[in-house]
Amino acid sequence: MANPSLLILAGDGIGPEVMAEVKKIIGWFGTKRGITFDVSEDLVGGCAYDKHGTPLHDDTMAKAQEVDAVLLGAVGGPQYDNLDFSVKPERGLLRLRKEMDLYSNLRPAQCFDALADFSSLKKEVVAGLDIVIVRELTSGVYFGEPRGIFTEGNERVGINTQRYTESEIARVARSAFELARRRNNKVCSMEKANVMESGILWRQVVQEVHDREYPDVQLSHMYADAGAMQLCRWPKQFDVIVTDNLFGDLLSDAAAMLTGSLGMLPSASLGAPMANGRPKALYEPVHGSAPDIAGQGKANPIACILSFAMALRYSFDLGDEAKRVEAAVEKVLADGVRTADLMGPEGGTPVSTSQMGDAILAA
Ligand code: ATP
Ligand code: MG
């Protein structure tokens, strides 16, 4: 069988710095675990613009469509702020998402015990937390037509349209149920079926897909406002949450803050299943290019490393290997190894990006 293939797009700012640590781990898998990835590397974002005059070259786009998974660092930086909208670094990422049709955005909120004090909530509420929010990413109120600012009589009116088709709901629901089967077989779907037509349809379709295709998964429904409250009150009651684009945007940011630093948070964006049965996929840390610390060896590589762990699990069917990576991160944190973003007010001496990567590799 062919080696699993991976396209690395390190991008701008701290992207290449954190990706260098992932590459060490990829190398380790080859020499120590006999798992060799066919890795290719290319440009995205500002660095691609500098070389090609576009934030994503057509050849790179074509490569992304062929590989088993794309791993992305970060794009953008102040030197690109004044570029024309059509060639902004972020457009490279948007094109990848759009052309790969990545409709399902997975944002885990996982709290490592050693960092539980970092949360804004009580330690017992977050310690051991491990949930995933699945956000619909390509439809809903951010895309629905009509949209715009119009004039009605003698005043202006701003309009967005919340719109979901049955098939758009069904495909993201499937993605959540598939995820649940790999985890703890439990999904909570969130909408506002009490006040929104799209919410009524959302609830119906999720229930139908469940009854027809995933009756083994435990499904519950919750209004998104109540869900937001429950997420802060007792997040461990959830396992997989599936919700629409708007609610997912809010809920996943809220959930992220349950766990601590931006430097810890991975994500996956998944599309339709490919010939091998695995979804099209792009993995990236939640954080951006962090221009304020770029080039200084201060960036925390854990978000990017955990994004690679997600790729092991969801694109390469290597869940046990993903656990090895996560356990190594857990151990290093328990040992007290901290990059600067993970230092509390009590202070201490932070390690560099590459020291953190080396510690995880050793663990
Ligand atoms: P973008 O628009 O690309 O999302 P942003 O300015 O919203 O960028 P980030 O680039 O993620 O957000 O940076 C936000 C803050 O978090 C910055 O102060 C940055 O230094 C810090 N930060 C982000 N990622 C990391 C990381 N991996 N390690 C340490 N600090 C980080
Ligand atoms: Mg941002």
From TrEMBL:
Highest taxon in the source lineage: Bacteria
EC class: oxidoreductase
Span of domain Isopropylmalate dehydrogenase-like: 5-360
Site (Important for catalysis): 142, 192
SUPFAM superfamilies in the record: Isocitrate/Isopropylmalate dehydrogenase-like (SSF53659)
Enzyme Commission number(s) from the entry: 1.1.1.85
Listed cofactors: Mg(2+); Mn(2+)
Compartment(s) where it occurs, according to its Swiss-Prot or TrEMBL record: Cytoplasm
Catalyzed reaction equations: (2R,3S)-3-isopropylmalate + NAD(+) = 4-methyl-2-oxopentanoate + CO2 + NADH
Residues noted as binding substrate in the record, renumbered to the chain: 97, 107, 135, 225
Keywords: Amino-acid biosynthesis, Branched-chain amino acid biosynthesis, Cytoplasm, Leucine biosynthesis, Magnesium, Manganese, Metal-binding, NAD, Oxidoreductase
GO MF term list: 3-isopropylmalate dehydrogenase activity
Residues involved in NAD(+) binding: 77-90, 288-300
Annotated binding of Mg(2+), by residue: 225, 249, 253
Cofactor note: Binds 1 Mg(2+) or Mn(2+) ion per subunit.
Recorded metabolic or biological pathway in which this protein acts: Amino-acid biosynthesis; L-leucine biosynthesis; L-leucine from 3-methyl-2-oxobutanoate: step 3/4
Function comment: Catalyzes the oxidation of 3-carboxy-2-hydroxy-4-methylpentanoate (3-isopropylmalate) to 3-carboxy-4-methyl-2-oxopentanoate. The product decarboxylates to 4-methyl-2 oxopentanoate.
Family stated for the protein in its record: Belongs to the isocitrate and isopropylmalate dehydrogenases family. LeuB type 1 subfamily.
PANTHER family: 3-ISOPROPYLMALATE DEHYDROGENASE (PTHR42979)
Subunit architecture: Homodimer.
HAMAP family with a match to the protein in the record: LeuB_type1 (MF_01033)
Name this protein carries in UniProt: 3-isopropylmalate dehydrogenase
Upper lineage: Bacteria, Pseudomonadati, Pseudomonadota, Alphaproteobacteria, Rhodobacterales
